Amino acid sequence: MRRAERLFRIIRILRTANGALTAQKIADKLEISKRSIYRDMAHLIGSGAPIDSEPGVGFMLRAEFDLPPLSFTFEQLEALALGAKTLALIADDDLSAAAKEALDKIRDAVPDSHKAKLDSPHLMVVPPEGTKIPTKNLRLARRGIDGDRILEFTYLALDGKTSHRQVYPLALTNFGPKWLLTAWCTSRKDFRDFRVDRIQEANLLREKFLPSPGKALADYLKRYSS
After folding, report:
1. Which of 11, 28, 38, 99 is at 20 to 30 A from 220, Cα to Cα?
2. pLDDT of amino acid 1
3. What is the DSSP letter of 127?
4. CA 183 to CA 49: how far, in whole Å?
């Protein structure tokens, strides 16, 4: 069984379960090892799936996870496929894998004639030469944004100076080969944008921050769009 299909089946099992399921029960349903389930769960949770887990109790899907049935034109599928191909090249390892899995699902859902067109090289994505994606820092930033958790790191500025920062991560923006983290900086008491490739020694704290007026992404966007 391919991993993409296995992850899809895990979500389906959790969605139809009456309450929490242990890793062993899920493993028995899929006829795989419990260790594989733990790895798959870590991947799903890290990718943003709304799964709650509690030792001794098991795993539970917090809310309806699947999209309702949708119908796409080929151009719409082509746009989604191109987006997935692009993300697979410029994102962190987890998001890249999720993009590839999404592309596999698109391929599996269309007729063979459409599948051949999706695989045709008439629309290609090539990353800029020498691009090195800061996958670890991107993943930490995404987890911080998703979980409202404080991110701590050393930042290397363009002038070569370093500073220690604790920030409330709010958003990630891609500019071709570069990713920019928008955050509220607790030491500067203001919004700051950080190039993710210049972040060093990053650590995601257990401590959470509460979105508050003046420190939220909406406030940042309002300031710089006016």
Report:
1. 99
2. 62
3. P
4. 23
- pLDDT at site 31: 87
For residue 88, what are the domain limits?
74-119
pLDDT of residue 75: 83
Q: Do 150 and 184 belong to one domain?
A: yes
Spatial separation of the C-alpha atoms in residues 190 and 165, rounded to whole Å:
12
pTM of the model: 0.65
Q: What gap in Å lies between CA 126 and CA 140, rounded to an integer?
A: 25
Q: What tokens appear for 11 in the block?
A: 């979500």
Q: Are residues 25 and 83 in the same domain?
A: no
**Assigned domain for 66 exists:** no
Buried b (16+ CB within 10 A) or exposed e, 154-167: ebbeeeeeeeebbb
Same domain, residue pair 174 and 218:
yes
Strand partners, 60: 52
Domain CATH number, residue 200: 2.30.30.520
CA triplet 201, 202, 205: central angle to 5 degrees? 135
Q: Indicate whether 145 and 207 sit together in one domain.
A: yes
Q: Which residues of the chain have pLDDT under 50?
A: none
Question: What angle is formed at CA 98 by the lines to CA 95 and CA 100, rounded to 5 degrees?
Answer: 115
Cβ(44)–Cβ(7) below 8 Å: yes
The reported pLDDT for the residue numbered 61 is 83
